[in-house]
Every structure is written in structure tokens, then in C-alpha cells.
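Quick one, T. Sequence first:
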Amino acid sequence: MPTSTVASFVAALPKVELHLHLVGSASLDTVLALARRHPEGGVPTELDALRRFYAFTDFPHFLDVYRRVNLLVTPADVVTLVTGLAADLATRTVRYAEVQVTPVRHRLAGTSYDDLAQALTDGRALARERHGVEIGWIFDADAVLGPAGAEETVDFAVGHRPDGTIGVGLGGSELGISRADFAPAFRRAVADGLHSLPHAGETVGPGEVWAAITELGAERIGHGIAAAQDPRLLAHLAEHGIALEVCPTSNLRTGAVPSLAEHPLPALVAAGVPVTLATDDPGMFHTDLDAEYLLCHELFGMGVPALAEIARTGARVAFCSDELRARILAEIDAVAAGAQLVSHGAAGDARRAWSSQGPPALRGLQRVRVAQKSARARARRAAVTRGSSGGNSSKSPMRCSRTRSRSSPEVRATVLTSRVKASSTRSEAASASAAASCASTSSGAASARAMAEGSAFSARARNRTCDNAAAACSLAGSTARICW
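C-alpha cells:
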């Protein structure tokens, strides 16, 4: 399936995003506004400088930049960040997101826990009301703050429990910091009904993924890409259905992988590990969820069925309501079925829907065929007439017919050009059918527009191909033959 068609499918595909940090989601414009309100924070106040500020040299540098931006955020800014994030998610057909917030870092920046809880509750309500996006909260402990910071994070999650609270996480540096050290805090959170959703195996080996599972009771793993180094761990993840929240662009930007070509995502999928795609910090990494899906298509060769299954995995392992999960899965199935129809049968359906004469390009091809048939009939009659009047009897009517049926290069060019046009017209009809199919879904408008643009591109390519076909036939001369 062409990349343009896959892009249209991805644009229409309902999705969930399960690994997304609130502060890191802020767009450049939003961060510029924060920096200009708080110039003492040390974050650049000009766009070009901010872009350079976001050029991370390694993972510790990224963490330092993230914390500096976090210091700019006030309670009012939290609501702005949440609603801005929801608007961005809605444009990518994201129906549900689990967003990570680090409450201790907000307290250190001067926001009280009461104010933070209220801002998150207000922002979540506005996200649903204005953009139709449902949000769940994961309260992330910063590993650098140690077990005491994790205990304080659990205190906030359990004591304030803003609307939409689903679990606790563990982020930040992994170097020299064992997941096992945070086991008491996570056991307390789980006992209070929260889910265990730590980062692990992002920048260190598979041992920390094992520790997240055995010591923290992890139900999903943030990143977890180091699992690809351990076949036994891969088998465990697959057997127990422990999903990995994989963020390819993030892993590249922070230096967790040396290149996208070396990213272990294909190995994880091949091992049967449940994988969901996410952006991590899209504002800082200049990405979005559609881009992550297209990256998997273009770099890893994933087609529509594989991309649809990743979207389904996200819905299955999300901690949303069962009703919302069922609705998202039904939407994914509908969009995927429409894409498969486009791929395997829309062209034939479109041809059957045309009139018996067909579109102009096919009518031109039919006229050429009728003209050639008439020419052959005239040749046969002429041969018979010459034979009955005593002409050269060594040329039988059949031989004469074969000889005269060879068309001139100009006619052959016309025929081949008509064929190319007909083929292109059928492709354009398929694109139109695809756009109509996608438009019938709840999120199909964007997909329909994208497919219409693909049809216009096809028309331009058709004109170039027709010119090339005519030139090729002309060069072939009398040796060219058209096989019907």
C-alpha cells in the first residue's frame, strides 16, 4: 500500500497514548510564553534559541532541560498545558491518554498540592468538554529524589486523588538507581488501588525491567526497550501480557538508541511482546503520535494490519473504562476494515459503479480498439477481393490480416497512452472510494482530505507517465507490438 494511503489511514485511526509527560508535551509556543512570563527561569525567550535549547546531547542533559522548564509552571499554567495537550491529541485522533505528572517537582516550583490537584481536575474536564479527549493521570516519582520522593508522590496520589487518577510511575535517571529501592512506596500505592506503571530499561540493561516486574509489580513498562537483550525476559513479557510503552523518536533524541535503524521495536513485536506507541515528550522531541506510526511503516515496514494491531494493543492495556475501550476498539476495526477494502477491492467496486461506457480515458481506449478491429476487417475483405480477381494468391487472407494488423508507432503510442490513462483513472477512483469510506467514520474528514490530495498527485503522475509511454512507443518503431 502506498505511503500516502497509509498516512491517510493513520490520520483516521483512533488511538490511545499511554506514555506522555505533561510538561514535555508543551509546544514551543507555549514554552516561549512561559519563559517570557518568567525570564528569571533561564529558559530561552526567543524561538531559535529555544530550539537550540531542545537539542539534547544525552539523557542527563534532557533531564536537566525538562526540570528547568517544569520550574516555570504555575497552577494556571497547568490548566493551559492540559487543554493545549488535549487539543493536540484531538488533531491526531487520540481518544484517550494517560498523562504523567511529577507532583513533587511542581511543589518544588512553588505550586501547592491542593492547587495542583484542582488544576488537574479542571483541565481534565475541559479536555473532555472542548476536545472529546479523555485523560487519566499517572503520578510519576522522580528517581533522583530517592525513595522519600516516591513516598511523597504516593501520599499525593492517595490523599488528593484528582479526578482521573489511575496509577503511579517512576521516571528520571536509571544510572546507579535501582528500581528495587522504590518497592515499599509502590506496594503501598497498589494496596490503595493504584496501578504500578514505572519506567525501566530505557537507558540501562534488562535487569531493571526484571526489577520493575518482580519488585514493583509493574503492570506495564515505560520504554523497556532493553528487554530485547534478554530472550527469557521477552518470553515472560509475552506470556504475561506486560506491555511496553515504546517511544522511538524519544529514544533517538535522548541517545537511548544510536539510530532508529537500530531500534529494537521490530524484535519486540516479533517476540510477541505487547507494544504500544507513544511520544513521551512531543513538544521537546518535535514529534506526534501520527509521526510515530508512520515511522513504523516507513522504517520497519509495518503495514495497515500491523499498525491497527498496535492501536488495538494500546486500547486493551489502557486503564480506561470498559465502555470507552470497547468504543475505541470498534472504531479501530471499522477504520482498518475500510483501509483493507481500499487496498483489495475498491478499484473493482469503482469500475462497476461507472457507466457502461466508462470514463473518458477508457472511452478513448475503446475507440482505438474499435478502429483496429474495423481495420482488420477491411484488410480481410480486401484480401478476399484481390484473391477472387486473380491477384497474388500466395498471400492468404489470414496472412494478409496479420500483416495489416500491425499498427503504426503513432497508433501504438495512442493505445499505450490510453491504457496508462485508464489505469490511472481507476487508481483515482479507488482513492475517491477510500476517501468516502474514511469519511464515513467518526474521524474521517481529515482522512478524506488526505486521500483527495493523493488523488491529485496521481493525476500529475499520470500525465508524466503518458508522455513517457508515447515516447517509448515512438522509439520502438515497427518492432513494437501491443498484446491485448
